[in-house]
Structure formats: C-alpha cells, structure tokens
Design brief:
The chain is α/β, with parallel strands linked by helices. The chain contains 43 helices and 29 strands. It folds into 5 domains: about 220 residues, Rossmann fold; about 190 residues, no CATH class; about 200 residues, P-loop containing nucleotide triphosphate hydrolases (Rossmann fold); about 120 residues, PCRA, domain 4; about 160 residues, Lambda Exonuclease, Chain A (Alpha-Beta Complex), CATH 3.90.320.
Length: about 1150
C-alpha cells in the first residue's frame, strides 16, 4: 500500500458489498465503473438471480462498457488457473474462498451467458421504454410505438406550434388573439421557438401544472407567486395611479412653486410635476411614464437627490412630499411590472398548453413517443394510485438490486421513478429475510447537465431519503467517498485541488470518517506529469489603425483565435515529433484530446491548422450536416434534379467532386449563353470530354430520380457507382461521416414520410440537418476534438483546453421559482423588480457553479499532460472565466518558466508560461506562426500562361508532370513512383496474370485517386512491360524502387539526401539509373517545355549517391517517358552542372 493513501481496497470492497446499500461519492478517475462492475460480480457470487439486478446508466455507451467489462471478467474466471482465480476472488471479496465458491465462479460465465435473463444494463430512457412496452394498457400507449429522437421531437413540436398559431389567427379565435398579441410584443417567430424549447425542456413539471389548471387558475397562481392580491391589468393600475383620489393637488402646487425657483434640475422636475397634475386623467395616463421619470431612474430605482440643497433650505417640507410620492410611484411601477409578467406568462402558458395538446395528437397519429414521454408516462404508471399498485407488484418481483450510475446527473422526474422502483426495498418482513439493496455512485462536482434538467442537489437529498429508509428498517447502509485517482498524475491533481479548494469548500460527511471535500490522492505519483497555463492570445495594440483596404488585398493580420489554433497545432506537432524521436513520453495522435465548451469557428481553425501539418484529426461529437461542403453538394444535386433550370444549384454540382469542373469551365458554359446553364451544357460541342461526362451523369440522375426513392438515388450515386470516393479524394476523409449521416437521414425520412425527393430535400434542410454520434474511439489514431460535455466519462494522456476565456451569453428568460410548480416568463430586464431580480441572481449563481463544475470535468480528463490556453479579440478578460480562475490560483504557487510564447498584446512580445511539473522538460519556445503574406513570395511567370492540354484527355484530373514529379489529390507519392512500384511488382509475373495483379494494385489506391488516373497508371505499366526495346530493364541484373541515402556536396555545402532509384541496371563495370517521368513531348513533333532544373538536380543527386555506393563503376542516367515507353539518356556533364 502506498504511504499516505486511504485504504483503497477496503473502500472499494465495502462499496461492492452485496448485502449493504451504499451511496458512493467518487471523484474523477477513482474507478467508479470498476466498483459498479465489482458489485454486480459479488451480487452474482452471492447467489442472486442475474435478471433481478438492474443497473441504470446515463448513456448507452456507458451501459455497453459495463456489460462488456462484466462479460470479460466472467470469461477470464472460466479460463484462469485455480490459484489465479482464488487470488482474484479473495481480492474482490476480502475473504477466503472455498472450493464450492471457486466452482461457482468458474461456471458463472456459462450460466449468465446462456441465460436469457442476464443482469440488465439500461439507460433510464431504455428502461422506461421496456416498462411501457410491458404495460402498454396501463400507460395508454400502443405496444408498437416508435421513439422520436431529440431532433425529431423538436421538428414535430415546431409543426404543432405552426398549426396552432395558424388556427388562432382565424376569425373564431378572439380569446386567444390577446395571448398572441401579448407574446408578440417581446418575441418574434424564431425567439418564440427557442422559448418554447426552454419550456418543454421541463415538460414533466409543466404538463402536471397545465393538466390541472385552466386559464384563470394559471393567472391567479402566477399573481399570487408575485405578491399581487388580485388579478389586475397594467392599464388598470396606471388608471388607479392617475386618479384624483390619490393626488393632493393644492399641497403639490405649493411644493412646485419652491422647485421652480430652485436649480435648473429642480425647475425641470417642477415643470414635469405641474404638467401632470394639471392634466386630465386621460392625459395623465399618457404622461405617466414621463411623470415617473421625475422620481425614478431608467432602471425604476429611486432618484437619490430630488431637491437641491438651496431649495431644501427654503422649504424642508418639499422633500417629504416628494419622497412620499416617490415611494407611491415605486410601489405602483413594481405592481405594473409584475402585472405585465402575469399577463405575458399567462399568455405564454395558455398558448403552450394548446401547442402541447396538439403535439400529443401529432404523436398519437404517428404512434410515437419522445424521450420526455418515456419518463412522464413511466412516472405516471409507477406513482398514480389507480394503476401503480399492480405495476409495482409486477416490477417489484423482477428487481431486487438497483444500481444507479452518474447519479448526480439524474433529474427530479427520473428520481421519482427510482424512488418508486425501490419503494418496497426497506419495507415489510421481507426486508430482513430477503435483503434488497440500492447502490448509487456519482459526484456533485461533475454535474454539468442542467440543460437536461439534472439536479445535483437531489443527489444528497435522495441519499438522505434512502439512508433514513434503510436505518428505519435496520438494513445495512454505507456512505463512501472515493478520492484516490487512478487516472491523472500528481501535478494535474495538485492543480485541480488548488483551483477548486474554495469552489467546493463545504465538507462532505460520511458515516465512518470525515474526508476533506477536494483532496485527490494520486495513485500514479511517480509518473511524469505536466500542467501548463499559457498566456491569453490577444490582438496587437496598434495606435494607428491602417486605412481600409480594398477587399482584393490579402490581410497580413491574423485573429487571436486563428493564432491560438495554429499555436496549439504546432504544440501538438511538437509532442508527436518528440515521440517519433524516441523521447521518454511517447504519444500518438489518438492520445491527444482538445476540449472546447462549444463547437464554433475555433474548431474549424484548429482543424485547418492540424490538416496543414498532416496530423489526423477526428472526434467531433455532433455534426451540423448542412454546414458540410460534401452534404451541401448533395443537396444541390437534389435541387437541380427537381428543377434543371436552377442555375445556381447546377453550378454548385458542376464544381463539386462529382463533375470537377473549374471556374474557367463554368465561365465557358455561363457566358453569353441563351437560356439556362443546363441547356448550354446539353448543346456544347461533344469534343469536350469533361462536359460530355458531366452531361451523361446528370441525364442519368434525372431519369433515375423519376423512379428511385431519395435513399435509392443517393445510394446508387455514392455507393453503387462509387462517387463517394471522389468526395474523399478532393475533400478528405472527414467528409465520410457526414455523407454516411446524410444517407441515414434519407432512410430515416422514408421510414416516416411518403417517399419523394422534394419532400426529403425540404425536410432535410429544415429538420434533418443535425446528426449526433458517439465520441471517437481509441482505435482511430487521430487527435480528438470534443466538447467537454461530449468528453464526460472519457480520458486522454494529453488534453488541451483552448476555450477558456469566452463565456456563454445565452439568456434564459424562463424562471422556475423555488418550490413553484410552474414557470414564470420575464421577457426583458426592464420588468425586473427586487423580487424577480433576486430570482435572476440566484439563477446566475447556479449557472456560475455549473460553469466551474464544467472546468473540473475538463481538467480531470487529462492523464499525463494538461495545457490551458485561451484567446480574446478584446482586452477585456472576465475575472471569473476559466483562464483567470486557473492562472490566478497557480501563479501563487508556481513559478514562471523560461519557456516563452510570443504574445502580441505585450509590449515586449513575450509572456512566460506557468508550469507545474514533476520532471524537467527541455527548454523550448513554442512555435508562434508569424503573420501570413508578410513578405509574399512573387508568383512564377508561368502562372498567367495558358496550359497545354495533355493528349490523354480521359485523365482530366491531372496535369503534365515535369521536374519534381507532381503529386495527385494531395497525396505525397508522385505518379511516377506509383508506376515504378507497379512495374516492379509485375515484371516477374507471367504475362497472363499481370492484368489481374495490376487490378488488385490499383484497387488499393482507389480510396485516394481518380479512377481514370489509376486506369492510365495500369495501362502505362503494362505497355512498358510489353515494349520489347525496354525488356533489358527487367532482367536478372535489374532492381526497382531502391532507397538510397548519403551526403552530397551541393553549392559548397554538404547535405544529407534520401532518394529512391526507380530502376537500376547493373552491368559488369557500369550502372544505369532509370528515372520514370510522365507527360513530356520531347519525342514528338509537337513543341514541349524543356526539362526543369529541379528535376535534373534530383536525377543528379541519385547518380551521385549511386557513385558513393559503387565508386568503381561508371554511373549513367536515363529518363523513361512512361506515356510513350521511350528511353532518353542524359549526359554526365549535364548532371554535373546541376550540382555545381
């Protein structure tokens, strides 16, 4: 046992005790999943029925992971030796085991695996779905109902909302017209949709209130909550305030006279008061706001100085009268504000009630339930008096042991279901004869899902509730705290403890001992760990802003956001480079995780920076499909097929990877055309092969769209005809997931709607454009970019937190006052008064607490290294943002390092890094990308010249390659190298088998290259092997694709070169080096460009390297023009000049 650590095994063994109910508070990385699986194992070993064990988890992936861990452990027991099994069981149970228990453990896997009644691992929603299908009559649902996902539910809710709004705008809706008019004063259509989503998010409480109250009761309840004695309108309150019964005009006029003789401010206030007093009641109502402004500020707060000192000395009584009127107006305006809140809240709830009723009818028509329905209806059948007894009787017989994972993220309505399931666990005589247990594991510090109605306070409340039930029944109970982290290194845990020492300062009491609330003990205390806090990247402070330039100018300035993205990418590249050089800390791309609070422009900047460095990246936990360029192209295909005269959509299709036309080609079609671009394309000269291929493709799609469903049409295009690879070749592998999601959406649409292309395109653009996916698995060797919420439950050796400065500005105007069964809508800040302002402050406090808990989750994802950084486009940095919280805490205990990061916001351009580490990293400066285009390289003269089109027009995706052997589709491997490899793999094979082998070779490259190019590569290779004049290149004395390295003297310097000799012919006293090249016209009558010096230097370097290896032999070089199968010898003098 490591010194200074709590007794880890004893705590975990106590938590897994099969006869003791336990409530476990487990900090991040303390092995809560292991404890939960251990408890299931001990329940099985104790003889409990597997089918009577129910485990509720937060996500499907967590449920699958627990099931997998359980099966792996049971499988290992069935195969390990007796001694190993005995040791494992004794470690698990903390007691000696006998032969009977050993035999039971060995057969447990077979017993559980072969049984259809296995331990049940469910999310709360999947359990409720099972419950409703088991009791459909009691729940009032059809057995074959389908589940609406979150996006589908929002779509159907929006449909119901639009339908109700249309109905209420009819001639017979006078009563509801006032509700719509009241709401429309504060929100537009888009804002109303967001407002409706906020209300429906807590539909469990909302429907319960609306179901039992009509419109009048709703208004009365809200008025009572706001302290209004009776229902009244704002206009009526103003009318009462302006009545003569509340005004002593004579006494007022004497005070006004003194004010008029006072200061300029006194005179203006006197004039406003006199104007209002002298007016009729009707005019007073019109001037009421102006009159109030004489006594109250714009925020409806009392003006401190109502009378100047000189006037007060003459008329002391004037101030008393003004103060009295000020108090009266303050009370009146507060009541008016609250009356307006009652009015708009009642209108919103009345309208919401109608929309929810229509929403329910729409779901009944489609025989579907959303996730909220699963919880609500399950709660009803488990708690309502008329059916709960029967349902609970049946359910109670099938659940003896209940385990709850991530209990801190359980909502109030979900706790009600759990409470009902365990209602009989500690009741009756059976509680002693047949002990039943409840087990919950969670962590208040990691509750970050308030937007899904998670209530972290309920974690402790439900612990107290079940503990009291257990104690009353004299049932064993244990409160356990797990604080030994098996995940993170000591510097990371130390920084977490320092940062959150005050945030989570309240002590947590346990039955056996009292542990400090935030003291993480490190299991990996000897492992190297690192925490770095980088300075915030801010824009440069230029006192003289440059004059506005034309948009044709490429700016040399880079935003702070983009700068940080490139710095992070450079640091990731440095970490990976150190690993490749064999440093002690070796990390792969899959070991690096970048966490952001929300997906935004920074993620796109980082993706671009990582791809520029050729670093694989993946893992976005959500996709807005309509923002993906590949999906946009596929949508444009649909628009074109629906209307071929849609020039914009056709232009997008023609420029997409499907047709691959350039701007010049599109200009040819569009310029001086008669009619649409489609007609221009159809009428174009057939000699242009690209135009002809595009027309054939689109004509075929038009015909198929008449008979195919959308899913069949797109599947035929992308999969059957394999056009998906063109998107991958041009865009990259990051388009694979969006394309697959698009195909899935087409299938999803057809499962719920009549199949039509027009309907699918409309549905997708308006409703189906969001796709979620599980976080990237470790088997993908790529850097993962995730939101902090999406990374919950994950870990990574290296974690970057770049989104630490910006704070959410989202405003939620819906309030659920404490213990109120209904929400209150406060449309804007002008309606706030002391009571409602208190609600706002309490809500902001809760949001600030969750904001800090989110930081805790983010920091504790890191295992070895944690980098905290941020950017800001302004100089104003919030004092409570993540970066400030961490940096101000660590700078007290951590010294600045000599590792620097350039920061343009500092005068000297340098700002040091804060580092907490238990090892000494090398001294380095993090690469800071300088501004682009500062000293732009002049473009070569040939950039504006016309390209000579290659003879092989079918290979329309490549250009003639001279010199340095051009690459294709961003691939690092030149075309010539591919041909040389193919030739080298075919020459020793019989001629009859070469075609088949060549096809296999190019098929492996179809993922990255154009089909036409691969076909040409195959044809060229076969022609080279079939040319008799070149047969001497493939004898026993030849070799192909030989790597060679060495030092070469070049321009008075010795440099190390690495090259590949594509073909070598070894004679007795000489060597012939053959260099493959495509696209030259030197052997034809047509003029062609000369060989560039760069390519000749490459040949010269190869010849020099060969001379170093074979100094006794004469080395000569030649070029093999692969498209013409001709050999051209080069003089040695020419190559020597290239290196001089």
């Amino acid at each position: 046992m490591k010194s200074g650590l709590p007794k880890i095994n004893s705590l975990q063994q106590k938590a897994a005790d099969p006869v003791t109910s336990a409530w476990v508070e487990a900090s991040a990385g303390t092995g809560k999943t292991k404890v939960l699986v251990d408890r299931v194992l001990r329940l099985l070993l104790h003889g409990n029925q597997p089918s009577n064990i129910l485990c509720l988890t937060y996500t499907r992936s967590a449920a699958a992971e627990m099931q997998e861990r359980l099966n792996e452990r049971l499988l290992s027991w069935s195969t390990m030796s007796k001694q190993a099994l005995q040791n494992d069981l004794e470690s698990l149970t903390a007691r000696a085991v006998d032969s009977h228990q050993l035999g039971a453990a060995e057969t447990l896997y077979e017993r559980v695996a072969n049984s259809e009644f296995q331990p049940k691992f469910h999310t709360i929603h999947s359990f409720c779905e099972t419950l409703l299908r088991r009791f459909p009559q009691e729940a009032g649902v059809d057995t074959n109902f389908t589940i609406l996902d979150e996006h589908g539910a929002k779509t159907l809710l929006r449909t119901a909302s639009e339908l109700i709004l249309q109905q209420l705008q009819g001639p017979k809706s006078n009563k509801s017209e006032g509700d719509i008019s009241c709401i429309s004063q504060y929100v537009n259509n888009e804002s109303f949709s967001r407002l409706l989503d906020l209300l429906v998010a807590d539909r469990w409480r909302l429907e319960k209130f609306l179901r039992n109250n009509d419109e009048n009761r709703i208004s009365c309840a809200i008025a009572e909550m706001l302290g209004l004695s009776r229902l009244t309108s704002p206009d009526l309150l103003v009318q009462v305030a302006c009545a003569n019964t509340h005004i002593d005009a004579e006494s007022w006029r004497s005070s006004v006279c003194y004010l008029q003789a006072g200061s300029k401010t006194d005179h203006a206030r006197a004039q406003t008061i006199d104007e209002w007093i002298s007016a009729s009641q009707h005019t007073r109502r019109e001037l009421f706001e102006k009159y109030c402004a004489a006594f109250l500020t714009r925020d409806q707060l009392p003006i401190k100085t109502l009378v100047s000192a000189s006037t007060l000395a003459k008329k002391p009584d004037a101030l008393l009268a003004l103060r009295a009127e000020q108090s009266r107006l303050l009370e009146i305006t507060t009541k008016i504000k609250r009356a307006k809140i009652v009015q708009c809240s009642s209108a919103l709830l009345n309208l919401t009630k109608k929309i929810l009723e229509q929403f329910s009818q729409e779901k009944i028509k489609q025989n579907c339930l959303d996730y909220n329905d699963l919880i609500i209806k399950s709660g009803i059948i488990l708690t309502s008096a008329d059916v709960s007894s029967w349902v609970l009787y049946k359910v109670d017989r099938s659940v003896d042991h209940l385990l709850i994972d991530e209990a801190q993220d359980t909502s109030l309505d979900q706790w009600e279901i759990i409470r009902a399931l365990a209602s009989e666990f500690f009741a009756g005589e059976g509680a002693e004869e047949h002990p039943r247990t409840i087990f919950a594991v969670g962590d208040y510090k990691q509750s970050i899902y308030s937007f899904q109605r998670a209530n972290p306070e309920s974690f402790n409340k439900m612990r107290d509730y079940f503990r009291d039930r257990a104690n009353n029944a004299s049932a064993p109970w244990a409160d356990i705290g797990l604080q030994v982290s098996f995940r993170s290194t000591s510097p990371i845990l130390e920084s977490v403890d320092l940062v959150f020492d005050e945030v989570f300062a309240a002590p947590v009491e346990f039955s056996d001992e009292t542990l400090p609330p935030l003291k993480h003990f490190c299991w990996r205390d000897g492992a190297p760990g690192l925490v770095e806090v980088w300075p915030i990247i801010q824009p440069s402070r230029d006192p003289k802003p440059a004059a506005r330039r034309l948009p044709t100018h490429v700016s040399a300035e880079r935003s702070s956001r983009t700068t940080l993205a490139q710095i992070v990418a450079s640091k990731i590249n440095e970490i990976l480079s150190d690993s490749r050089r064999g440093h002690s800390n070796c990390f792969l791309p899959e070991d690096i995780m970048v966490l952001v609070r929300r997906r935004g422009p920074f993620v796109l900047d980082l993706l671009k920076a990582l791809k520029n460095l050729k670093i694989p990246v993946t893992g976005l936990d959500g996709m807005a499909l309509t923002d993906n360029i590949a999906v946009m192209d596929l949508i444009s295909v649909g628009h074109f097929l629906l209307n071929p005269d849609d020039d914009l959509s056709l232009a997008e299709v023609l420029k997409s990877p499907l047709c691959n036309l350039g701007d010049e080609d599109l200009f040819k079609l569009a310029h001086n055309r008669h009619g649409s671009i489609w007609h221009s394309l159809c009428d174009w000269d057939t000699t242009n092969s690209q135009f002809q291929e595009a027309r054939f493709l689109l004509e075929d799609l038009i015909e198929k769209s008449k008979i195919f469903t959308p899913s069949e049409l797109y599947a035929d295009l992308l999969l059957t005809r394999n056009y998906k690879k063109y998107f991958v070749s041009k865009i990259g592998i990051e388009c694979i997931d969006p394309i697959n999601a698009f195909l899935n959406k087409s299938i999803e649409y057809e499962a719920k709607n009549n199949s039509s292309l027009e309907g699918f395109i409309h549905w997708f653009e308006n409703n189906g454009a969001i796709s979620t996916r599980e976080p990237a698995l470790k088997r993908n060797n790529a850097v993962k970019i995730l939101t902090v919420h999406g990374a919950k439950g994950l870990e990574s050796p290296v974690v970057f937190l770049p989104d630490t400065v910006q704070k959410s500005r989202a405003h939620n105007p819906v309030f659920w006052p404490d213990k109120a069964p209904f929400p209150i809508w406060i449309p804007n800040a002008t309606l706030l008064d002391p009571l409602t302002r208190k609600w706002v402050l309490e809500k902001k406090k809760r949001e600030a607490e969750e904001y800090k808990r989110l930081l805790y989750v983010a920091m504790t994802r890191a295992k070895d290294q944690l980098y905290i950084c941020g950017w800001s486009e302004t100089s104003n940095i919030a004092s409570d943002c993540w970066h400030t919280i961490v940096s101000q805490t660590l700078e007290k205990v951590v010294e600045e390092t000599d590792t620097n990061i350039p920061d343009s916001a500092q005068k000297n351009g340098i700002s040091s890094i804060l580092r907490l580490a238990n090892f000494t990293p090398g001294k380095k400066t993090i690469a800071y990308p300088g501004p682009p285009f500062k000293n732009p390289t002049p473009l070569p003269t040939w950039i504006n010249s016309n390209l000579t089109r290659h003879d092989h027009q079918s290979i329309h995706r490549t250009s003639p390659t001279f010199g340095t052997s051009g690459t294709f589709m961003g691939n690092k491997q030149p075309i010539e190298a591919l041909i040389a490899q193919l030739v080298d793999s075919l020459y020793h094979i019989t001629e009859s088998e070469r075609e088949q082998t060549a096809n296999k070779f190019v098929s492996r490259l179809s993922y990255r290259h154009d089909t036409n190019l691969l076909h040409a590569i195959k044809e060229w290779a076969l022609k080279i092997l079939g040319t008799k004049t070149l047969s001497f290149l493939f004898q026993d004395n030849t070799r192909g694709c030989l790597p060679i390295s060495g030092p070469i003297r070049y321009r008075e310097r010795t440099l190390l070169f690495h090259e590949t000799i594509e073909r070598l012919v070894d004679s007795d006293d000489s060597l012939l080096l053959v260099n493959f090249l495509v696209g030259n016209n030197s052997h034809t009558n047509r003029p062609g460009p000369p060989l560039p010096a760069a390519f000749l230097r490459k040949i010269a370097v190869r010849a020099s390297l060969a001379k170093l290896v074979f100094p006794q032999k004469d080395v000569t070089s030649a070029i093999l023009w692969v498209d013409e199968q001709k050999l051209q010898h080069l003089s040695s003098d020419l190559l020597k000049k290239c290196l001089s």
